[in-house]
Amino acid sequence: MSINNPLLEKSTCPNQAPAFDKIKTEHYLPAIEEGIKRARANIDAIKNNKDAPTFENTIIALETASEDLGQAASIFYNQLSAMGGDDLHAIAMQIGPINAAFSNDIMLDAQLFARVKAVYDQREDLDLKTEEDTLLDDTYRGFVRSGALLDDKAKTRFREISKEMSTLSPAFMQNTIKSAEAFELLIENVDDLSGLPESARESAAHAAAEKAKEDKKYEGKWLFTLDYPSFGPFMQYADNRELREKIWRAFASRAWKDEYDNSDNIKRIVSLRKERAALLGFDTHAHYVLEERMAKTPQTVNDFLEKLKTTYKPAAIKDLETLKAFAKDECGLEDLKPWDVGYYSEKLKQKLFEFTSEDFRPYLQLDKVLDGCFKHFEKLFSLSFEQCETYTTPPPPQGGGNKYPVWHKDVKVFEVYDTSSRHFVGTLYGDFHPRTGKNQGAWMTSYRDQGLFRGHVERPVIAIVCNFTKPTGTRPSLLTHGEVTTLYHEMGHAVHGLLSNVTYRAHAGNSVLWDFVELPSQLQENWCYEKEVLDTFAAHYNTGDKLPAELIEKLRQAKNFMAGWAGLRQMGLSLLDMAWHTHKHPEDIDDIAEFEDEAIKDTTLFPRLAGPTSSSFGHIFAGGYSAGYYSYKWAEVLEADTFELFEEKGLYNQEVAQSYKNNILTRGGSEKPDVLYKRFRGRDADPDALLRREGLL
Where in the chain is the domain with CATH 1.10.1370.10? Predict the structure, then answer.
């Protein structure tokens, strides 16, 4: 079985990238089971080694013991997010408990932990390099935080919790996807499209035409969904208030009081997290999580959020009052509702700055934006991105050059090189458009991190996955400026992974403390407002005309429009996250909507008129942001402070860029982030940098 399983064989694809053309659904579970079998053999060899424990025979051996399993699992979970589907989700419900059991077998093994502890206890005498010392400390702490010091009864309960939790997050994610996909706004009357730009109409017509191939009811109509490229423009531009309310309520009520209701999943997730934390000696899940964050304690996080809230809330109230007055004076609307905010804020922005978001779309063709993004990273970090041929089914095409199998025909592949040395940096996949089963939003992920793999330090295999506006029969994929910033954001993560230059994959790229991970991504968004950058790619898809300079200047002037409103929303999400994960008795929470209303009452300026945010809050219930959503704002402080240095010295100043690259991006998690940041900046971050940028100081 294992010999013929492409998930376990050494890949013959360039850079040992996954053989997507050969991988089938039936390969995943056997690969995980065989990967565990191989890993157990490696672990047994470590435990039964008669030599005294050393850094090499215990810590490094542990780091590399589960390579085959890790390879198979990373491919599976990445495909679960990018492709989805009932088959993969069914497998996830099987794989989750198997992986959890194996992980517990390792981390709760007293004999294995004894060897780790023996090395840890002599660390002062080992003359370790910084990265080695970090790996040793991380390994020891990982065992302790995974229950190694618990008694047998507590270990048994810890196992039970891990097993149950392994299925809850995939179930939450699947419910959110299914609930969103169950909604369709099918428009028959052209009058109901009033206000919508031609790009949104054409995309909706194209979506309906695609569905009409299988169901005649879609013929000649316009289809809008809860995918953001469809939902977002509708909320901004549709004149039909009743339809705006309908689609807004559907979006806000995903996985709430329907057949995909996530209420029980949420209550169970937070209860189990709290119980696990208590077993390990922590007051709450937040205390457990934040021990391994820059913030360290819930009190630090709450103080940070409270300080920002005192600035954002009055600014948000002012934003809303201005919007209400505008809607009343200009349009006669007496009672502004949540489904009106996007619509009237777009109209107010048009009045104040004399442009619309749609004015940019004809100038922002995805292929050209992507090319400009690559040129940006070439100027900044001396990287080149060379597109490769792709295929979806074997055998690969014949001829010269590197060719990569991909998981979907829309996926693009690029090989990344250092322009000065021509050294190979890594492989980058780009998956840009929505499809059935795919998670919403945008993210960067890794199919293999840089670092030690099968005896050699290998280069990484990275992917960015987005949901940008699809091309139609007459138009290429045209982006909003917001989608451009999303691309630069995810490419910031990707370059963090690609430039990693460490020994151990546990430290590679984005493997940093969670409230540091958004610095490289959010920093890149700043360049999207600079004329020097926009001029490299922003050209009309029909005429080739450059984006007008006056339009760029208006964009810059409008950068902080509704900044208070947006900031308060982030405070609400962050406080909601902390409320769920600092609750002393989450098992007593009965109604998740009532709990949420109380948690965020000081950050909401409207009553709740649909489902609670929690029911689809995948970041904290199906992602890695539990007790960590604050990190977006935490990292914004760091990146605002960083970009001030680029503004001072020059957008592409090589002294600053190389210092940032060498001290932050290449080092991953090999040292503590506060040490890395101070080495780059020469000081700690200025906490006021963010509010200065937003014009709120």
Answer: 298-354+562-693
- Which amino acid belongs to residue 93? M
Cα torsion through 260, 262, 268, 269, rounded to 10: 120
Does the pTM exceed 0.90?
A: yes
pLDDT digits (tens, 9 = 90+) for 297-319: 999 999 999 999 999 999 999 99
- pLDDT score for 278: 98
312 Cβ neighbours under 8 A, 6+ residues apart: 564, 567, 568, 570, 571, 696
Given 202, 490, 525, 596, the catalytic residue: 490
Rounded Cα distance, 664 and 675, in Å: 10
Q: What CATH number does domain 2-107+109-149 carry, 1.10.1370.40, 3.30.2380.10, 1.10.10.10, 3.90.1150.10?
A: 1.10.1370.40
CATH no. for 361-545 = 1.10.1370.40
Give the Cα separation of 636 and 312 in Å (integer). 14
For residue 403, the cross-strand partners are 389
Residue 216 corresponds to which tokens in the numbers above? Answer: 């005649």
pLDDT single digits (tens) 131-142: 999 999 999 999
Nearest to 504 by CA among 7, 3, 65, 43: 65
- Distance between the two ends of the chain, CA-based, in angstroms? 63
What's at 211, amino acid-wise? K
CATH 1.10.1370.40 domain span(s) along the chain: 2-107+109-149, 361-545
pLDDT > 90: percent of the chain: 96
Q: How far is CA 662 from the centre of its chain?
A: 24
Contact 581, 312 (CB under 8 A): no
Residue 230 pLDDT level (bands cut at 50, 70, 90): very high
Fold of 298-354+562-693: Neurolysin; domain 3 (1.10.1370)
Dihedral angle over CA of 283, 284, 288, 293, nearest 10: -110
What is the Cα–Cα distance from 434 to 439, expressed in whole angstroms? 8
Mean predicted confidence (pLDDT) in 358-377: 97
Note the pLDDT tens digit of each residue in 265-284.
999 999 999 999 999 999 99
Q: Are 419 and 384 in contact (CB under 8 A)?
A: yes
Amino acid in position 379: K
Angle at 564 between CA 561 and CA 565, to 5 degrees: 85
Q: How would you classify the pairing of strands 424-431 and 461-465?
A: parallel
490 an active-site residue?
A: yes
User: Where do the H-state alpha helices sit in 600-664?
Assistant: 618-621, 631-649, 654-660
The three-point CA angle 64-65-70 to 5° equals 80
